[in-house]
Each structure stands twice: as structure tokens, then as C-alpha cells.
């Protein structure tokens, strides 16, 4: 439980004169800002020429903020190495998949695996940690900025060499790599690790294993860099460390945050796609369990750059975002950024104050959200988000598999968000969990879009099922080995065996006009599909293909009782409006089977974040779509803000309105 | 006439363990496979390190297949040189039009004109030919795989030097090149052959002659490579040699197959575009006259790669494909591929068995087609495809001209296929013939989309006309010289003179709202057009422009009687539904004039392949669109499978059904 | 006032044999051609090998033309350096933004800043000027061809070095650059000028200042090259010098033409976009005041290249173009080109004669336009275009700002053309003027899309207002400094202060559903917007936001009386049909306020070009859209061609028809 809620902004004091700084701090106080994030890109200010490191300015800023009651999150500036590191050194720069080296002047232009970059990053971080690591007001650290947001894998010579080492560590002998990747195909076979290329230009596609492994290598290396940086900071500072990450970047967030202390992320989802905003809350809450997460960046109104600008958020939406985030477990909610950039490529980006120090179009949003936060703070600090009963697997490793194998332009993030949005609409309190997460406390586990299931995951999921859990696996789950190859004993490997079925066919079902039937509903089926025949005792068909030529009569949904629970296979994706209804019916059915209680009855666009107090339940209700709606109160409750008594039954919620309802006891009955 | 029909698959035994091989061969027998194609990409298996060549495995495979009654087509593996050839040798690799060298790990990454590549290719092919060239069961050879499928012209240094030699051979003196290409334009003029660039990066378009000649150079060189490889094989083996080509690749199939022994090709057309499937049968039948062709690759259900997948064929369609192919002259019909790849980038591609050795969604298709082939075999072996009376010119050289000069994104293959599809729909038995093909036996010659007409072609076509043939030339025919320049005496050069007309204007007619009238029909005109005024005796207008400003009253179709025949000029493309009707009316009119008899009356989507027996005619009727239809039997016949008597008149054909009808005598009367 | 009107063609005699040349000259006479443009790309003809310069051919051509009564404009051939300059010298070639050097064979392949290129360009130009500079018949010079049409900024090593010098000249000390560009952002900071990169490859966007300054540098350098070339010519020839430029190219036309003697340009606008044709006449008339402009290239019917072709102009349209151009101030009207190219990449381009020397589809157009020119010549030579009362600012510098900062793909040329088209439709006689143009004679100044207002411009515009002018600034005007950064005192800098308002917010208003009200009309607002609150005495709101959340009640149009005139701010763009109406109402309102008299009442698609004679007015009326229309004659007049009396009131104009009306006195009353 937090001591307080943080309400923050990113600030770049090194870009402004003293007059602006005084003005800024005064206005921050006015608006209720209690934390700022600084230093992110300031390497050239800190070390204008090589080794001329001076951190006095930032020390003074932190002390000055502290004097005004504002805490600081200090950033390392490694996303933007100075010109003395990059000029004349193309070998230190990021190299794209065409083999082209980046130039100076943007971000992430250096290769984070370059030895000299690592040395200089360690040094500047050491100096920063020494200088500010124990200042009063310093409450945390952020490493770098948005790792791999602008770039994906680097193909420089440093990376080539590290790639060979990584492969040798993984495979030991080149023959093992050849066997695992099946390099006899197309005479790809390597005689030594030194010959294995990076996935650069080729006439046609590279081997799937090469493409996926290079992504895993790259993601491990950036986590390694983060770990090195964190270790350096920890030598000088006890403040917790995070990184402003995202599920949009080319990182393995699970690996990355293993070496960090708390979770944080950036999000710029549009108001019309609020599910893409909320999925973050339900994911990042679980990344570092027991430690609240932060929204490190979001826009006070709109985002923008020289080459784009988004639609400003409607009035009320930013407050709804803040309330939802805090209610779903956020400790910090921060804007990017405080004062509009005077120069550079993000001049058009939304901010709290303009470059001339006046309130922007987003200012009122920021003020409203601040007041809401003040109002909610005591209620939230006295409660914690309820643990969800339903968990959905999230995997950046799976994302890498889909990047290697998008088939018809499948996009992992989009697939996962759409799948998640159905749980959201159904009012099922849910969590997204990383592949390595423990399953204790859950009753229902959903694992869509996980091409490769690791033995560890399978074992854990199986134990979960044996103990009474229901695991819904699929679609597009289990069909690939960990080396991104095809199983050779059955289509879905060990998962298929456990499910007690035989996968009769796997094929791209789109365009074949195939219709599936399940739960009394019919729907067209889509995506690359696996269709089954139950084979083992206890396995049975739940959904069958009605037509579809040779596949007619085969199953696309099966279940099998295992121990006290069930393993459900979803082999295909019901699509369209009917498919949506079928999928929800499936979720509802197994939510019932699993005995889920944490499910609320709200109209679409309105969410409930249930929180547990000492002997009572708090519902934070927020309308996210601006259309207003209603929620069914399962029992009599109290408006926690006005103390008014509320009868059980329908409660109306206005456009972007939030309500806090207190119930005695558990309060959340399934409808 | 074939001894038998072949039904085959591509197989990669080098990728699997013994258990899988035994399983595979047993199932092949079960399914009726009587030929397999092996070795295609196996260079690294054959020669894992430089000079360590061992072909024992493939010898044993061929012997083993033979022992099971399965014949073999052996492939050379030169599409995928091993890592010892490519690693550290960017100068041996294919270079794209941006000047970027390809890396190892895909296919066609080496430059086929690189000297070392040629040397090593010759050596491995020599060893293979020596080792397997006389094994029983070896019935043929396939060179490489799909030349120039993934790449087009290479721009490496080796090619640059060969290009200069090629130019010197062609032009002798640089001044002749300068004159022919008109390089005084834009000061392109070269002082020596060494200065002539490859068509790489430039601020705007290159000279048309340069672009087209570089394509011709590239196509000649790949034919030269094929010729060298074939010669090497012939030193050791008498089995006939082919290549699995396509009209989609960057090759000159006419030149390529001059050095080979039989024609074969790959096709993955979708069921909804069955004309794109059938055009191959009607083309490849004529490429090596007197020798039946092979479909070397087609999908048992769907194609796929990491980044794409097609729609599975509807049930019954693959059988229809096989029946149509055999009936139209195929000796072999082969699938790609037998067993799903476990690794690499084509894991999602359809196959007969899955990677775990079970029947796939396409298996039933393969079985049905096998039964049909068994049923048809005696009937087809006793007959031969009737020679068509209508021939349509096909030219990969023309394709190169259109790639240089696409105007508004004109695509030669698409243009030709759409033009062809009208003959198909009209039931005109037809053949596509290469530019150099003899015209004996034809009554009607259609030559659309041939920008440059060679003197040899013109002379042959003229003789054909003099002897009574009707030649319909155009649209987009004759307007360029062989050097890809404009004629300077008249728009269409010698063709125009022969046609006895004057081309008054050539211009892009689309968007001008011009309407043409011919055969009592009106239709909008499209494409780059030539409009005429008859000038010489015997020349007359057949179609005129109704409006169109200055072009009103001019002709877009003319004809001229020459000797016993006629030369028809089609200067513009009638477009839309009305244009389609006009074009068919034109074809029907001249089919009548030419006295075509081989025309059948079938509903759209159903085709008839007429074959000649000893004193009788066989019609193989196939429904290709799944909608079923009917065919008018011109006289009483017999169902060749059931021996039932069939009256003249309408015969109904079910969805994807085939029927074999035997008629006494000639049997095909024009309706 | 011109001695005569010129009617010309581009001609490439170096590409043809003597027979063609004689034929060409005879036909030119026939058609009324009285000037030809030669030599444009003929460097390799003039200097086939290095230093072997021979200009005899061109001397003879000019003399021969002169003997036939045809004048010549001689071109320098520097757009196409010969192979001896480019071969083996990638360092002399243009380098694109990916760092790739261009090859020989197209145009503009050399870097115009390369030292050797400059040397050789100076030399060949010197020789040409010496040889032909004083020949009778030589009436003018054209430098190079379409500077920067195919390429934008060059990123070669020569340019890098010159860029550093340019920056040093501009900023003196690197710290000044750092401050002005705000390079503390993202640690871009440079320690010396040598470190400042060109805007090449980077992971994300470059600094706005870097991108814009590099464009200004490039545009200054090409103007410098033009200046050097002009100086060389002037040493040998008194004939005036121009360049065939365009607002589509990457040049600063204002700077470029400062060093030249008369304005000319190329245009290939389609007939359906005739505003894009006419905007040129209204712009280029003012570029070199007092000197008539030339249309140096336009198509006789259609344009084309190997990869494109346009729709042929409808019959009558080319004549309408010629009449409009001459009436709006053109002295010359020239086609590209006379005879269709036999070779190269522009074979499909429209011309007057075909490659075989016959009239093309455009020939009739050329003949009709020639007759119209003959008919108009005496009338036009006796009059001059009336000076417009309404001026609209045009700035290639602004274009550079938009290229750096397109936000949602804003395109300066498209924005300006659409804005201009409203003045055209409203019959307001108008001129486009460069930023540096004097404002004498104008009553209304429109300055849309000028992100950065220079102090000089502001001062001149302010003086204009004080003297009674009305200045409408915006939208998207004034929001950036000259360094492409944000103002820090207020949103619009000094402009805002003068307008007496406060910009309350700036933000992207699209998608917010915001509606503005002004002049009794309502319209949706779009584009990046600034919304105001009048603050100073005399400032008042003219248009307010009706809804729009926090911006409701703020102004998007304000005006302030300053001296005898007014400064109007337009902060947002009214969009859609309603927005179009509102904008026209705004223009009409301030046209009235400003006392504009030069406004004609014509139906849409018909224009009036008013000209001043000695005591009389001439209206040249042209229907440009082919639909015909009518014009209200404000008073009785005379048909200047037939001498018929015409009553005041409606005069009908046929499709593409032109009429010349003579009025006594001023003649143009506002309706």
C-alpha cells in the first residue's frame, strides 16, 4: 500500500532559463504536481565534452523541487549519447536491417551493445547515482527512455559478434543449432557460429528460427544493459528503479523488469480506443507484484511530432484515465510533458504549459484529474486492487514469434488487445500476466496467441488445472516449438497430448466459408486454425464445424477434465459479430464453470475496478467512452464520496463520470 | 504419346530421419505417387564443406524409391549454395537495384553469373550426374529451382563486366550502341562499353533501351547457365532435362527451354482465378512440341510462408486441376510438397502429409485426383490433345518491354491472362505460342501486347496470312523497335505498312471518354491506343471512333486481305462490360472467317479439352468454377467411362465434375 | 510592353538527321512557331569528350532558324553532365537521404555543389556564351533545366563541407547555433560546426531547425550556381537569362530569380485542375516585375514517361490555356516538345509532331492556339495586365517549413492552390507575390501558411496596413521563428502582439467536432489552429467557436484596426462546403472593406483577365472548364474582335471560348 499517490510530469529544466524554471515550479504546485521526472535526455548537459561531467545543475534542481514539496524521479540519459560519442564513429551506431548506420541527432542512434557505449553509459550513470542518489526528494530512478521504441534489432558488427557468443551459449555446438533450426533446409547449414548471419537483406524470407532467435537475443541484450545500469545505480542509491516501457516496443518486458524494482510504462492510446489504455493497467499491475505501477507518460490532451498529431482528448477523458489507473493499481500518473518543447522534433506535442508558459488546451484536463486524485487518495490508500480470478497470458516472446510469422499481417498487440477487450466488456475483473507468472489465486487462465509453450509454462498451467483451474488455450497457441519450428509428433506438441485430442488438420481457415457451432451459436471461423478429434478419455467436443468440406464434423473447441479442473482448446477464431457473441458465450460459460465471482454488470464503455478494504469492498466505477451508462449494484452500498446510501440495482453513470461505491463485505456477486 | 502418366511430389528426404522416410514411402504408394522429385536445395547435404562431396544418400534414396516402383526426377541444388561459398564473399552474392548485396540463408542469394559460383555449380552437378545419372528409376532432371523467382536482374561487379561483353557482342562498336539507344538524349552518350552502367539508382528513369537490354542480358545469362548445366548432365546421363519455370519469373522461357528437353512449370493460382491456372496448360504444351509437359509444382490445398497464406482449394478443385492438366497434355502432375517442412520459412505451406506424418487438409484432394488419373490414364494414353486452330503469342521479351514501360502500371502477365480468358470462355480451343514458334496448323493468330515485332516474326506471320490465316495484331503491338525506341517512318513500323493503314495518332486514350463502334456494338476504349486511316488497297475500317474530338471517325480496328488471309489491326482496347462483348464479337467474327472448327459450346466455368484418337474424338469436360454447368454435345456420343450412349444436345456437368465423351470421327462442329 | 508575343517549342536538333531538321523547320513556320529553345541536354554533343568542345552545330542551327524568322532561346546543358564527368566519380554525384550516390543516365545525377562540376559547368557555359551569345535571333538564355525537379537536397561530402561553411557564416559561433536550434534537447549539442550532420538516416525525426536550415542551404546553393552561370553568360551576351522553374521543385524561386532577368516556368497541370495552371500566371507575373514572364514548357495534349501518362487535354483547352496566359501577362508560350523523342525515357510524352514527323493528337490544339495568339497579339501588345488590388503571399521558404513539419501530411503547394482557387472563383483579380515583394498598389494582402514571418516582412506588411491596407494572416501563419522553433513570449510572436490578441491555445483541431461561427455562417474547423481572445484596444472578435469544450467562446477570426487599415487573424481553417462558403464570405467582406474594384462577376470555370489600355479597359474572358458560362458586363462595351456593341449585363461564353471586350475608361465595377 502506498504512502501516497503521485501525480507527475516530465520536465526538462536544462532547456530553459531561470525565469521559466521558477514559473514552472510555481505552476506545478498550483496544479498539484508532486513528482517530476528529469534528466532523461540530458547527457550533453551533464557531460558536454568527453569526461567533463558536472551534475551540479541537476543536484540543485532536485533540492529546489524538494524544497517546494515536489519529489523527483531521476533518469539516466543513455537514450541520447552526445556528439563526442557518435561523431566519426559509425561503428558505434545502430544499424538497421538494410545494413545502414544511423546518424546523430535523433534518439537511440547508438547501438546499446557497443562496448564503448556501454562503458560511457556506465560512467555517466555512476556519476549521476553518486551525485543525486541520496538526495532528499529523490524517490526513484528511470533508466534510459523507451528502449527500442524507434528501432528494433541492431545489425552492427558489435551485435554480430555478441550474437555468435549468444548462440554458442545457447547451443554449445554448431551442429545442435543446425539440428534445432533445421538448417539442412535450403542449404543454410553453418560450419561454425561465426558464419551465422544476422537477419539482414536476403532475396526471400530468412529461416524462422534465425529471425525469432535474433529477436530474443536483442531483447535479452537490452535487458542485460538495463541490469548493468541498475546495478551501477544500486551501488550508490537505495531508490527503486524502473524503465518507461511499453508493449509497443521491441523488448521482452518480463526479462527487462526482472532486474528492475517497479513497473512503469508510457501510453498514448486515443480516447476512442480506451481498451488499449486499460489493458496496460491490467498488465503492468502484475509485472512487479506487490509493488504498484506507474503510468510514466501519457498526454494531457494530444500527442504530436513534426510529422503527426493526434486528436485532442475530449473533456473529461483524461480525468477518467487517471481515476481508472489509480483504481486499477497505479501509484503514479504522469504527463508528458510539462512545458511544450521550444525546439526539436516534438514541438507540436501536447503539454501542460505552452512554450510561452501559459496553460494549454490540456490544462483543464490536468487540473480536473488532479482534483479527482485528491478526492480519491484516502479511499484508495485504504484499499488495494482485488486480485483478479481471471488471468490472460501476455508474452513479448510470442510477439517476436508473430513478427517472424505474421501470416496475413497478424499483429500480436492488436490480437491480444481485441481478445482482452471482450473480458473488459463482460465486466470480468482480469489481469494480464507474463509467461513466467505464478498462477496462484486465479480460477480461469486464458492463453491465446502463444505459438510456443515452454515446458515450465505447461507444467505450471497443468498444476493450475489439476488444482481446479480452467485453462483456455488458443487460438494460435502451441503450434510451434521453442526454436520456432513445427512439432513432429503432433500439431500442438505436449499441449495436444494433455488435451486428449488429435489435431486432425491445421490450415488457414479464412476464405473457406467454414462455420462453427458451439453453445447453441453459429459463427464463421477465421485465422490459421487447428481442428480436433477428441481421442482420450475425458476429452470432448464443445464446438464443431458445421460445414467446411473435409473438416466438417471436426471440433474447433474441446475440453478435457484434468484433476479438479479443465483444459479447453480453442483451435480457431470465431469472427464477425456472431464470432464475438460466441467468444463471449465461451468466456461466460467457463467463467461460470470456474466459479468466478469478480464479475460486474456494467453497460459497455463503463468499467468497475473492485478494491478490497478492511472488511469492505470499494468499487471505482468509471465511464470511459463518454456516452455514460449504468452499473448494477449487487447489494446496498454507500457512495464513498457523499456517504449517501445506494439501493441495490441500477446506478447511472454520466459521461466520463466516476463513482466510488462502498459495500460491506465482498460485494461482487456474479450476475 | 506417353508410356504412362506421372503423379508426383517434391520430397526432401535429407531433412528427415529414417523412420519418417519409411513412413513416407509407404504412404506415397498408398496415394498412388509414382514419381518424386528430390535434391532441389540439398547442396549442403551433398557437399557440407568445400569439396567434401558425398552423394551416397541420394543414390540410396533413388534405388529405394525404384524398389518401391517410384521413379525419380533428380534436381541440381544450385539455387542454394552452401555457406562456404557465400560466407565472407559479398562479391559472389546477388546485388539488387539499390546496389545492396544479399546475405546467406534464403534462396537465390548468389549471383548466377559469378565465376566461382559457376565453377562450383558445374562441379556439384558433374558429381550428381555421375552418381545418379544412370540409376534405374531416374527418369529426368530438373535444373536448379524457379530461376529468378525471388530476384530480378543482378547488379554485381561480375554482371557489370559480362554486361559490357554482352553489349560489345551485340553492338560491336560503342557508336552503334549510342545510335541505337539514342544516347545523345540527356547526354547519356558513352565513349566505351566499359562506361555503360547497370540500371541502378538514378534521379529519374533510365533510358528505355538500357533497361530493356539489361533484362534481355540477364535472361540470356540465366539461359546460358541452364545450358551449361544441361551439357554437364548430358555427359553422364541420358535422362531428359527440364526446369520448373513460370511466366511469373524474370526469365525468357523461350530461350531457356531451347537448351532443355521438356517443359515444366510451377503454378499456385487460386481456385477463383482458374484461367490463370489453365493458361499454363495451353502455353507449356507448345514450348517443347512433341514432348508432353509437366506441372512440377502445385499445391494440394493452399500455399503459405511465414508472411502469407492462401485460401485452401475447395473440395473437388484439385481433381479438376489434375484432370484438366492431363487432358490438355500434361504427362506429370506434381505437388509441392509431400511432407510439411519442420523448419525454415515455409512451415505454413500446404503439403500432403503434415510434419508429424499425418494426412493434411489437402490429402483427400490428392487421393481423389489420384483416382481420377487412374481412371483417365488409358483413355488419355490412347489419344493426344488436338492441335488448336487458334494461337496466341506469348513473349517474355514483351514482358521485359512492359517492365521498362508500364505506363499506367500495365502488367504483361495480367494483360495476357485476361485476353486469354476470353478465348477460354468462348470455348475456342487455343494455344499460347512463343514468338519463335512455327505457325503451321493454325488458322487464327492473336498477337496482343507485343511492343516490338521482330523481322523474323513478321515474315512468318505474313506467310501465315498469305496462306489463309487471319492475324489479329494489337493492342499495344508493334509500336517499339527491337531496341525499345520509337519507329521513325510510321508508328507501328513494318506492321503498319503491311496493314495498309496510316496510324494517324498514338496516345493514351483512357479518360478521354472515347467510344468505339464495331460489329454493331459500342464500347469505351482504353489503354495507349493507335488510331488508323486505311490507305492502301484492300485495307478497310472495321471499327471506328464515334466521338473523341480530333480522333472521331478514325479507325481502331482495320483489316486488310493479304493473299488468302487477313491482317487485322486492333489499335485500342475496348473496356468494361461492353468492351468485353465487343472483343468476343471480334474473336467470334474472325474465328468464323478463319473457319475454326474447334470451338465448343459450354457454359462459363466449364471447359472442354478435345483429344484425337485413332478414328475418334475424345472430349474431356471439366467444371472449373464449382458452379457446375453444361456442354452441348454436337452429335451422339458415348460416355467413355460408363459406355452409356449420350444423345446430341445439352449435357449437364456437376460442380468440379469431369466427363469423358467419345465421338466417332471428328466430333467438334462449330456451333 | 512586348514587341511581340512568342509562341515556341523545345527542340532537340542534335538528336535528328538533316532531313528531319528541314522538315521540322518547315512545319514550325506552318504552325506559327516563332521561337525555339535548344541545347538543354546537349552537353555530350557539345563536348563529347573532355575539353573537345565544338559548338558549330548549334551556331548553325541558330543561324538557320533566324534565316527562317525563328528566334532562339539557348540553354546551358548542365542538367546532364556527360559520362566523362560522372564515370568512376561517385563523389561528384548526387547523394540521396539514404546516403546513396546516383548513377549516370538520367538527369540531375551530378551534385551541383561539386567543385569539379562547377568548374566544367562554367567552362561549357563560357564556350556556349562565346559562340552564340551575339548571334542574331538569339533572344534569351535558359540556365540548366528544372533545377531540383527530380532530386531534393544532396547529402554528398562536398555538400557536407559547404554546409559547415554555410552554418559558420550564418551563426558565427557553434554556441549560437546550439542556442538557436535548442540542441540541448536530446543531447544534440555540437562542439564544432564540423560535427553538424546532414539530415540523413536516423531512428526518428531530426531537429526541425536542422531539417529546415538544410533546405534553405540547398536552395541558396542552387541559386548561387544559377548566379555564377548567369554571370558567365553576361560576360559574352546581352540577351536576358531565365530558368524554367516551377513551384513544384525544391528551389527558392525568390532567391533564384533575383539573379536572373526574366521569369519562366513549366506546368503540366491537368485540364480538370485548371486553378493549378492559372496560379502560375498570377504568381510568375510578379516575380520579375516589369518584365513579362514565359511559360517555357507545357504539353500540347498530354505528358508521359515510361512509367506514366496523363489524360490528353480536351479539344479547346490548350487554346484557352494560351489565351489565359497571354492575357495574364505571358510574353511567351512554349510547348514541350516539338518532335516526339525517338529514344530515352520520355518516348510516350506528348509533342507537336510524332517521331515520324507527322501531326500528333495535340497538333490541332497547337494550331488553334497559334491562330488565337495571332488574333490577340495586337490587342495585347497595346495593353498591359492590370495591377491586382489583392495580393497573396507565396513562399518557397514556407514550403520548406511544411516539408519539415507536415503534421498530417500537409502539402504547401496544395494548400496554397486551394486557397488561391477561391479568389479565382470569386472573380477577384489577384496576384501571388514573393515574401520580399513590395506591397505598393495593393489593398488586400492574404498571407496563409507562412509559419515564420520575418521582421522585414512584418514591418512592410504593417506599413501596408497603416496606409489603409487590410492584411489577412493565417491560417498556420506566424507560429514558428525563423529558426523553425516555437516562440517563447506568445504563440505567434510579433504578429500576435500587433493583432492585439492573446493566442489562448494552439492545437490540432481536426477530429474534435469544433464549429466556428462568423459572418452569420457556421462551419467545422480544421488544421492545426490558434484560438484567440482580443486583449488590446481595437482588437475584436469576428468569428467565435460555438462549441469545442474548453475553447468554446474563443475566437478563430479577429481583426484590429491599425492606422488606416486592419490586421485580420485567421487562426483556423473552415472546412467542408460550409467552410468554403465562410472563407469566401470572409474574403468578400474584407474585399469590400478594402475597397477592391477589380472584381468580376463570372460563373465558376470562367475567368476574366483585365488589362489596361490607353484610356480603355480590355477584358479577356476565357472559359477554362469546358462547361461554358457567362460574365456580367458592368457597362456597355465592344467586342474587340468583331467590333460589335455589347450591352451591359450577362454575356454568354461557350465551352473553352474566349471573348475580348473593350470598355471605355476603367470598366471594372465591383458587383
Characterise this structure:
Chains A, B, C: Its EC number is 3.2.1.23. Chains A, B, C: It is an enzyme of class 3 (hydrolase). Chains A, B, C: Belongs to the glycosyl hydrolase 42 family. Chains A, B, C: Keywords: Glycosidase, Hydrolase, Metal-binding, Zinc. Chains A, B, C: Residues 605-662 form the Beta-galactosidase C-terminal domain. Three copies of one chain form a homotrimer. Chain A has a ten-stranded mixed sheet, with helices on both faces. Chain A has a nine-stranded parallel sheet with strand order 5-4-3-2-1-11-8-7-6, covered by helices on one side. The two termini of chain A are 30 Å apart. The first copy, chain A, is α/β, with parallel strands linked by helices. In chain A, helix 5 runs parallel beside helix 8 (208-234), helix 8 runs antiparallel to helix 13 (396-404) and helix 11 (317-327) runs parallel beside helix 12 (363-381). The mean pLDDT of chain A is 97. Chain A folds into three domains: 6-85 and 102-148 and 237-383, Glycosidases (TIM Barrel, Alpha-Beta Barrel); 390-593, Class I glutamine amidotransferase (GATase) domain (Rossmann fold, 3-Layer(aba) Sandwich); 606-664, Sandwich (Immunoglobulin-like). Chain A is globular. In chain A, strand 7 (264-266), helix 10 and strand 8 (293-297) form a beta-alpha-beta unit. The first copy, chain A, has 17 helices and 31 strands. The longest helix of chain A is centred in the first third of the chain and has 27 residues, at 208-234. Chains in contact: A-B, A-C, B-C. Chains A and B meet through helix 8 and strand 17 of A and helix 2, strand 9 and strand 10 of B.
